[in-house]
Amino acid sequence: MLWGMGRSAKGPLYLELAERLRAGIRQGLYGPALPPERGLAEAFGVSRDSVRRALALLEEEGLIRKRRGSGTYVARRATFRARLLGFSEEMRALGLEPATRPLKAQLLPASPEEALALGLSPGEGVWRLERLRLADGEPMALERAVLPSWALEAPPEASLYQALEARGLRPVRALQRLRAVAAREEARVLGVEPGAPLLYLERVSYLADGRPVEFVRSLYRADRYELLLELA
Questions:
Q1: What is the SS3 assignment for 63?
Q2: Segments forming the whole domain that contains residue 36
Q3: CATH at 40
Q4: Do 49 and 83 fall within a single domain?
Q5: What is the pLDDT of residue 218?
Q6: Pairing with 196, which of 151, 175, 182, 189 sits 20 to 30 Å away (CA)?
C-alpha cells in the first residue's frame, strides 16, 4: 500500500491523495476492498474530509464503488484480449456473469452500408439485433448486430455465437476498429451521464470459407472495458 503524503505536493491534498490511490488501484496494490476512511486518513496523514473528497473523485471516474453499510470496493473492469470470442464467452473467461437484454429484433432489407459490410446485394434480408449486454448485472455495452437472413432462423435469446455455432457458422476471424466517443442518447440505457466516455467498436466477422457473417457496432462503457493487445 502507498503510505504517507509528501507535504511539498502542490495543490489540494485530496487531489494528491486521489492520484496516489488511483496509481495503487491501477498497479493492483489493493484487494477487492479499500481500507475504511479512518484508516486511509491515518495512513496518509490527511483529514477524513480529504479522504472523502478523493474517494468521491475516484467513484466519479468509475475506479471504485461504494456499497452502503459494506465499504468501498475497487470496481471490477473487464479486460478484453484481442481474440475472437463472443461476449458471453469472454465474460465467463474473465469470471464475470454475462446477461443479455434484447431491445429490438427485426428482419429487414439491408442498408447500403450493411450490404457492403456483409457482401450482400442492397435490399437483401438481414437480421438487425439491438441488445444491452450486462456483466455481473451491470450494463457493459449496447450492441447493434446485423447478420444475413440465412445465418439465423430466429433471434437468439442469449449467446449469438452459440446460436451461430449450432448452425455450423462459427466465425473464425474478424476485422475490428475502435475509437472513443461521448455518450449521447444511449447514456440512459448504459447507466452513464450524457457526455461520459464510451468506446465504439465496429467489427465484421468471417466464416472459414471467407463469407462475412456478422457486422456489429457496439458502444462500451469506458469505465468497465479495456482492450489488451499483444504486439510482436
A1: coil
A2: 13-74
A3: 1.10.10.10
A4: no
A5: 94
A6: 175
Residue 109 has what pLDDT? 97
**In-domain check, residue 168:** yes
- What percentage of the chain's residues is helix, strand, coil (to nearest 5)? 25, 35, 40
Query: How far apart, in Å, are the Cα atoms of 212 and each of 90, 173, 204?
Result: 21, 10, 7
- Select from 72, 8, 17 the least CA-distant residue to 44: 17
CB atoms within 10 A of CB 40: 22
- Could you tell me the three cell numbers for 225? 472495458
DSSP letter for each residue of 75-90: PP-EEEESS---HHHH
Give the DSSP H or E segment for 23: helix 13-26
d(CA 3, CA 17): 10
Q: Distance between CA atoms of 48 and 26, rounded to whole angstroms?
A: 23
Listed residue (86, 210, 205) closest to 147, CA to CA: 205
pTM (two decimals): 0.62
Q: Do residues 114 and 60 share a domain?
A: no
Q: Which of 106, 156, 167, 108 is nearest to 133 (CA)?
A: 156
Which three-class secondary structure state does DSSP give residue 184? coil
Q: Which residues contact 170 (CB under 8 A, 6 or more apart)?
A: 161, 164, 207, 208
Q: List pLDDT tens digits, range 65-105.
A: 888 777 888 876 655 444 566 676 777 766 778 888 999 99
